[in-house]
Specification:
The chain is of the alpha+beta class. It has a domain of 61 residues: HupH hydrogenase expression protein, C-terminal domain (Ribosomal Protein S8, Chain: A, domain 1), CATH 3.30.1370. 35% of the residues lie in helices and 28% in strands. The protein has two helices and four strands. Strands 1-2-3-4 form a four-stranded antiparallel beta sheet, with no helix packed on it. A hairpin with a 5-residue loop joins strand 2 and strand 3. The longest helix is centred in the C-terminal third of the chain and has 24 residues. The termini are far apart. 6% of the residues are buried.
Length: 93
Amino acid sequence: PMAPGEEDRIVEFLGRGEIEATLHALGPSELLETAYPGVWLVTHFNEADEIMAKFVEVATVPALLITPEDDLHDSAQRLTGALGRVLSHEQGN
């Protein structure tokens, strides 16, 4: 637990960077780059917009924004199939 005002001082110290991302899964998550490249402020909210967790992550890209390898493979296959259907439909017209 933090003393009153500590969290605000940390957030102010870290500053704001150029990148913001919001995810919507089991409630929104907000990922903000700080003034220090590779240092991210990550906040998870519940459906009532109450903060459930807030932490600092040091990484090139926050883990939540990295697509799992299996999903990449599946997406590539699905995209190839969808593009093939679009192209064959256009060629048929």
